[in-house]
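Reviewers asked in the last cycle whether our approach scales beyond single polypeptides. To address this, we selected a multi-component target totalling 628 residues and predicted its structure end to end. The input consisted of the following lines:
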Amino acid sequence: MNRKIHLIDTTMRDGSHAVSHSFTKEQVRMIAQGLDDAGVDIIEISHGDGLAGSSINYGFSHTGEMELIKEASHVIKRARLGALLLPGIGTIRDLEEAYDNGVTAVRVATHVTEADIAIQHIKAAKERNMFTVGFLMMTHMASPEKILEQARIFEDCGVDYVNLADSAGHLLPDEVKERISLLNERLSVPVGFHAHNNMGLAIANSIAAIEEGAQYIDITCRGLGAGAGNCQGEVFAAVLNRLGYETGVDLFKILDVAEKIVDPIMQYPQIINTDSLMLGYVGVYSSFLLHAKRAAKRFDLDAKDILIELGRRQMVGGQEDMIVDVAYMLSQKKKAGKVTD
Amino acid sequence: MKKVKVAIIGPGNIGSDLMYKVFRSDTPEMSYMAGIVESEGIIRARQFGVKTSIEGIDPILEDNEIKIVFEATSAKAHLANAPRLKAAGKIAIDLTPAAVGPYVVPCVNLDKLSEEVNFNMVTCGGQATVPIAYAINRAADSEYTEIVSCISSKSAGQGTRANIDEFTETTAKALETLGGADKGKAIIILNPAEPPIMMTNTIYSIVRRPDENAIRESVCQIIEQIQKYVPGYRLRTPPILDGNKVTAIIEVEGAGDFLPKYSGNLDIINSAAIEVAEKIARERFLK
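The resulting structure, written as structure tokens, was:
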């Protein structure tokens, strides 16, 4: 038997994007109960863009996230209840409220080059004895050496592990390996990985991360998540069983959560179509997908063209507002083109 | 024209850029730069023939000719300095988050603060977005206003990075108190793209009277007022209506005085501070 791999379920956080932040208390209660019973280590819940992400820019939550957190907290018996926090969107005050409602693990996420904006939040979490994770997003946009430099900022604040996210689903397995292996070799804390399936590589990349020493892997039931979704939890549990890793997750129980609870909630099948492939191909933040589709409709454009322009501009996570900017610019260009025709 | 002497506390990037702007202005006259150590900024000021102190603000307090003092240090330092400046009869223009005095965004409420002796400059995002929020509210009555400020990583200083919550909380509050929204929310994003991106700001508002023409007219009017003190302030996307939701996007290019042009965020707060100083100088000391 190989070493233990910790599975972090983020169906009710990253998956929140794919249902436009519409989770209800009842859905949360059922998913949280099922996942807790199935044996995942951390159950993450919050708006897709983290605590206080409910906004015009990212979409309003149907039910307030603190209500959902309370609901999950009531039914979870063994897993840790986690939340995501993006400094610049959520604040320490939001973290305190989540903590008061039962959250005991927090992942503080920044763009891959901006780790230092998370120091105050990580320290606040550690003061409350929370399980605290430093989370770097869009890791395809930086070299392994740069990522190590940023991860060290988290390490110095005392995080419990450092998580690397391939937020655009752009990385290839070898690129995941060079990032994870350098961190695993040089950091004193464990390393984790968060995949997106925009290029069809979420499972392969998560295995690549494990092979280089990653101990924490993010999963979602049915792969529910931004873009083409994440590493599909029930499939990954089966793969890890075959590879001989210990996860503590009961395969048949998580299969049931995915099939009987999450599947009926899904608003569209989590497939790789042109738009989601484009996210991965040009390296754009996965949660831009639905916003780009809406803007394409509003301005009579092709979502693909909007996403390509966003990639060219090197937009980072959270810049959903620039989708309107790009769409407006493209529509003006289109109009100007028509006039000259 | 007779000039009014001013001092700057804090010779960092903000303080140095302020000094360059004071040199360019025809009302305030640069008199003193105060710091706590012999720094690059102190040396720079001295090279320009400005009096300097590395022993705090005592020489400024003792100089009766200095009427206006810019505080470009930290909230903690300004909390300590504010009562001393007041006792010495100086007007304080505070660029820290201390918020001893009321928030001021020149084109929105400077006219209403004619007796005030301590002005807080809100945040860079507040200077960039509150005017638009205010313009939308006066035309359409905002229930909720939300802004997203994106600045280049290179122009986000240590102070901003170490306390990013202060930005979101202060800006949100100013969207309510000055911008007129029933509820405000602020988001800040740092983008490391090379070459550095200009500061961009998106202002969203849910309004009770969605009249596109009235909103556009009101927004264009306030932009003209801001451009008088921030020439690089531009509308990227004019107010677009989607039901009762307004979206407008603006870009701020800096003047490139001491800081590079992409630092529109630092430029706009400094330009607004200079605007306050010029008005006080004219109305209180040069009459």
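Residues 4-121+268-285 of chain B form a domain with the Rossmann fold fold (CATH 3.40.50.720). We regard this as preliminary and will revisit it once experimental data from Aim 1 are available.
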